[in-house]
Amino acid sequence: MAPTDATLELRPPGPSAAAPSMLLRAGNLHRVLGSGDAAALVLKGVNLLVRGGEYVAIVGPSGSGKSTLLYLLGGLDRPTRTDADGKPFDPPSAVFIAGQDTAALSDRELALLRNRTVGFVFQFHYLLKEFSAQENVALPMLKMGQLPHEAAMDRAAAILQRLGMGDKLRRKAHRLSGGEQQRVAIARALANQPQVLLADEPTGNLDRRNGEMIADVFGELHAQGQSIVMVTHEPTMAARAARRITMEDGRISADDRTP
Amino acid sequence: MRWFISFRYFLSHKRQSLVCIAGVAISVTMFITMSAMMEGFKDKFIIETVESSGHITIHDEPRETRTKILERIYTDPNALLQVQNVRPRDNVKKIKNAAGLMAKLRHMRGIVAVAPEVEGDVIVTYATKTLSAAVLGVEPEQQILVTTIGQDMVEGDLSRLRTTADGVILGSGLADLLGAKLNDEISLSSNTGGHTISRVVGIFSTGVTPVDYSRAYMLINSAQTLLDKKNIINDIVIRTDDYTKAEGYAAQIESIAGYKTESWQESNANFLKIFVIQTIMTYIITGALLVVAAFGVLNILIMAVLERVNDIAILKSFGLSRGDITLIYVIQGLLIGLIGTVLGEICGRVGVSALRRLPIKVEGLIKTEGILMSDSRSLYLWAFVTSMVIVLLAAVYPARRAAKYDPVEVIRGAH
Which of B302, B318, B317 is nearest to B400 (CA)? Predict the structure, then answer.
């Protein structure tokens, strides 16, 4: 990944990247999935603090609540506020993103917060097949509305070049390989210089070589100050993170840091 | 950004979009041509009727508003009332002081011209043909100011009524049925015993079949003599500055004149009711076509939503709100509706012009040499508004459905 644009800023502006600050906070976090007899308590009072600049890997067995926690931390989902009897949790089940209580935000405000603060990468790339790689990356910028169309497209091209995709800017998503598609998805997640990159099994659908390439990209981004929270099953991926949170049965069972 | 995504989605389903656009375009074309045809006939009927018979007519009778004496005394509607040996009053029906009333009317605001008429039924005989007809005795110079009889002459001249003793002008249909031609002599007999031999000095055609087949014009003095109505005026015909306001003027005049005063709308209420029903039926049919086209739009957008559930999830993940997602699909509906409607308007315009040129003779309530098509711009505006509203309503359901997708559920489903 040879940088072609030295001035291109991928990591977020402001103090969060450089100085440790409260970036994400979950307090007594509960989440029930399903309803009625099928209702399952997936998160059972999770407390977690992620500071700016951290590289966190969330690991654990399937069904332990890793992805649910990640979606809640990114404001893609909302916590369950009351228990099965309708009684509010005490203290309240809450998520703060960059200091903002997601419970106090409307759906529209939460969507805006996601657009400006968070970048998601999923196991499946979810690229929009009608759009080129460059356009896919430009879309979050166009939503943010701070850059005109041409400028957004230029920045998208620069990010893709930075991730080694400079020669495939105009290629439609379905004509890219799995690794390339995931790199485009990472570029899209980085488009608005998010304060935190949230990745859900980013290498889960890739072969080993492409998986390692994505792991390298994450490592380099973190080295530049990008905060990353990643859910993974892969021990080698998790080993690259400075902090590893292990989840079991909806709770955090271990929180290890590599010195 | 929403337009950018909508355009790209729209273009990605060219074939389905084209089918939808064609459906909307055909519906709008039908809407315009059917409405133009219907409105064309209605307008022609109204104009011909109004112009050939005047905007307002004062009749020589009071408006029947009083309750009959017996009904006032015996109010039970089920009572059987029988009156014997009743002798009706032998009233001669006429407008009293017609000249004074006309002078007063000429000074009223909104009144352009007034003309007196005497009317009566006659038997017309020419050779072996005998028919009944309505004779109108008129002052030619005044009559041409209140009706279009002067322009409706197809043979002869209205002014010849002045120069030919007992001259008569026949409706074209009546002349055809009799077989009478210009300058032929015909016999006219009234039910009061009057009789005259008249020369045909003109033939008129208003285009309104009932008028052309039953009406004859004579000079007012000649008609009064024939009908035994010396110095009697039965009707006063009035032309106003705006025929659409005739109802209001008629009510005003009736309060002054004290005689039953009918606007053209009241005189032709039955025909106008038929037109209302016809209008409703036309709009139901064309509306149904538009609804069917809208179902096509609904169908393609639902398919588009189902195909792009993952897209919706990812769009939401990077910050698009429910409103953004709704708009993306509504814009697609808008594009289909807009292109289809504009195409339909163009095809409708072409269709109206083509139908107008078809050499078809129509002879029914009105007589024309081709299909009458309205040129009203409001038809195109109505077609546009109706089509766009229906198509956009059809787009709302899939758009709202798309907006409701929970991105987490979608992403979990893909795992």
Answer: B302
